Amino acid sequence: MHDRTILITNDDGLWAPGLELLARVASRFGRVVAVAPDRNRSAVSSALSLHGILRLHPLGEDRYACDGTPVDCVLLGVRSVLEREPDWVLSGVNNGFNLGEDVFYSGTVGAAFEGVLQGSKAAAFSMHPKANLASVEPWIESFLRHWEALDLSPNRIWNVNLPKGEPKGFKLCGQDNRQYHNLVEKRMDPRGMPYYWIGGEVGPTYTRSPGSDAEAALAGWVAVTPLRMDLACPEMLARAEDFDATFNGQGA
Ligand code: MN
Q1: Structure confidence by residue, pLDDT tens digits, 87-98
Q2: How many angstroms does the Cα of residue 1 sit away from the middle of ligand 1?
Q3: Which CATH number applies to 4-177+207-247: 3.40.1210.10, 3.30.230.10, 3.30.70.890, 3.60.15.10?
Q4: Which residue, 65, 78, 118, 166, has fewest beta-carbon neighbours within 10 Å?
Q5: Radius of gyration over alpha carbons of the chain, in Å?
Q6: What is the mean pLDDT of the chain?
Q7: Which DSSP state fits 180?
Q8: CA-CA-CA-CA dihedral for 109, 115, 118, 121, to nearest 10
Q9: How far apart are CA 14 and CA 92, in angstroms?
Q10: Centroid of ligand 1 to alpha carbon of 92 (angstroms)
Q11: 105 CA distance to ligand 1 centroid (A)?
């Protein structure tokens, strides 16, 4: 039961309270090795540092700060620190939801995807920025106690979003749509030069379509979404004849 090796990381940085929470919960299931960015690396998705060196700073037993991205952390953790794939790669707990199209930008989710690519079971955890750490903790533990009973196909991860307040339960969800507002704001600096701020002042809003991650998380459920790396569209792949007629037919 407790012989698992568990690699944890995040994108908020090694000192984020969410990582402490994840380490504490994960330690009930095996040996926890933390390799996490030495600063906030949110919204770097699956970025990989290919054009610079990386440093790993040991900060105590099984605890390392890395000056790279979350995916760099997973790679260094698996290939250099552990020298084998861990049983689990857990990422988070992110300060803020990763719902809908957030998952494409999220370093938290990117690290989990790297975990499955390295051969481990992987999950990404995110929570409402005002979530109570004490009330989400037993839900993360409960998820980890049960998730091995429900295997995902290869190259898939669980994306878990924890709500504000006491959760009502777990809900299996699809992926919502995020609504974009004035995403880039132009401002002037004290010297009269423009600068740009991505994201604006208001947080993202979501369509909250029925059965989606955003609907569930915003209604107080622990939203659990299985995500896959294969993004190919099945509905168009089913139309091979139409495709051939269009691109390879007469007049092609
Ligand atoms: Mn983050």
Answers
A1: 999 999 999 999
A2: 30
A3: 3.40.1210.10
A4: 166
A5: 20
A6: 95
A7: P
A8: -130
A9: 10
A10: 8
A11: 10
- Give the whole-angstrom CA distance, residue 154 versus residue 252: 37
Residue 21 CA to ligand 1 center (angstroms) comes to 14
- For residue 204, how many other CB atoms are within 10 A of its CB? 18
Identify the bridge partners of residue 31 per DSSP, sorted by sequence position: 5
Q: How far is the CA of 85 from the centre of ligand 1 (A)?
A: 24
State in Å: Cα 10 to ligand 1 middle: 7
Q: Name residue 187's beta-bridge partners.
A: 195
Task: For residue range 173-210, list pLDDT tens digits in order.
Answer: 999 999 877 788 899 999 999 999 887 667 788 999 99
Å from CA of 250 to ligand 1 middle: 51
Total residues found in the chain within this entry: 252
Instruction: Supply 98's token pair.
Output: 């990763």
